[in-house]
Amino acid sequence: MKAKTFRTWMEHLQSSGRLAVIGKPVRLDYEIAAIAKKLDGKKAVYFTEVENYGIPVVSGICSTREDFAEALETDTYGIIPKFTEAVASPAPCNVVPDVEAPVKENVITKNIDLMKLFPIPVHHEKDSGNYITAGLFIVRDPVTRKQNVSIHRLQISGKDKLGALLLPRHTFHLYKQAEEAGRALECAIVIGVDPVTLLASQASTPFGVDELEIASALRGEPLELVRCETVDIDVPAYAEIVLEGKILPHVREPEGPFGEFPKYYGPRSDKEVVQITAVTHRNDPMFYTIVPAGYEHLLLGGLPREASLFQSVRQTVPTVKAVHMGPGGTCRYHAVVSIKKRNEGEAKNAIFAALANSFDIKHVVVVDEEVDIFNMEEVEWAIATRFQADKDLVVVQGAQGSKLDPSTAEGVGAKMGFDCTVPLNSEPMRYLRIQIPGYDDLKIEEYLGQNNALKSVHIEKK
Ligand code: MN
User: Fold this and answer.
1) How far is the C-alpha of 399 from the C-alpha of 214, rounded, in Å?
2) At how many degrees (to 10) do helices 79-88 and 295-316 cross?
3) Is 314 a domain residue?
4) Structural domain contains residue 354
């Protein structure tokens, strides 16, 4: 398995020529983010010389659909079915002793100073400071003992203190329960895991499902965990770095602004505070950062959302063929759905099902099954030639949307759906795609290469 650990995946990227090693000294402020962004969607990047640090920084370990497909040992069309299956049947993890866990090679419990320990970058112009962007944030439900994993932006707010943005989902729910009882909520922040575990952390699941168990299911073998030093949390044993701590009750401090996935800044406001209690890391650790709004970030959010969207649409329209949330729509706001339409009106039902799947989804385009929805030029062609706004457009006013979409009123905004399917009763020639017989099977290489000089009779005489 190429994606067994962060390091095996890095080795695989290097041996397949997909790792850019930057030996020139780079600055923590903006320079790392700028270089990583230049290579976004092309290569992973490994910075060996970060100014004032002896620890390298890594970014972009998966920044295409093909990268994630390879990590999951499938092809790009296999990602959603494989992910869906794992979400439906999580598998147990395996807790190993400290001596078998590389992340315990170094344990720090005193005088913790995060900025002295690790090269934590500043990414965007107006960011409030250095941010951990790729930490798997793990908490435990004290009642069921099930863990929950998510990724939150984490501002360095002090030597051993982080400011966290907790959206009203699972981590927030467990934190509020603890806070109402006057308790802190223990947590662990895990940096540098294999890409399969990273993707699993983003699964859309009901409350109570442990995302690390989804990682085990995706891997086809138990993910190895180890118990933390100062908190009752189990973390991946082969992680590069783990920060242990607790979210303090009744404490809020300023956090933000921070450049977010829609390519705008999330605002500054008073947010939850994490007190760090211990740091553990491998020997020669690597620090991993995700550049916000890059392909790596967008796909990490988008692929699990597509899996969830596919399930939602299928409940209403069983003949749904594929769904796609592309980077132009931030992999969250725009959904393209292809269906095999059997009854008139089904495309509109598919629009409603997609909009009901997630408050983030804002615009939905429904096309017939033969349109390649991963090719946005094809999708635009379907809108251009199979859509009439007076009867094929659905607009809903005043629904809940994303608060990070600046065109909404604090998250309240409009939804829109395009029915770009061909009417079932249309006469066949009207929507018949032009085709050149033999085109699909033609191998152009067989026609190029030899005897391709212009015949002398056709060359202009001076
Ligand atoms: Mn969860």
Assistant:
1) 32
2) 70
3) yes
4) yes
Specify if 8 maps to a domain. Answer: no
Q: Among residues 388, 403, 419, which one ends one of the domains? A: 419
Task: Show the tokens assigned to 291.
Answer: 């550049």
At 217-276, the pLDDT tens digits run 999 999 999 999 999 999 999 999 999 999 999 999 999 999 999 999 999 999 999 999
Domain that holds residue 122: 63-285
Quick one: pLDDT at residue 450? Answer: 67
- Which residue is it, tokens 């495309």? 347
Q: For residue 47, give the DSSP letter.
A: E
Classified as helix, coil or strand, 57 is: strand
User: 452 C-alpha vs ligand 1 centroid, how far in Å?
Assistant: 60
- Ordered strands of the 334-339 beta sheet: 320-324, 334-339, 363-368, 412-419, 393-400
What is the whole-number distance in angstroms between the Cα of residue 275 and the centre of ligand 1?
22
Its pTM stands at 0.94
The neighbour count for residue 45, using CB atoms within 10 Å, is: 25
150 alpha carbon to ligand 1 midpoint, in Å?
7
Which pLDDT tens digit goes with each residue over 77-100? 999 999 999 999 999 999 999 999
Beta strands of 267-317 (E only): which ranges? Answer: 269-281, 287-288
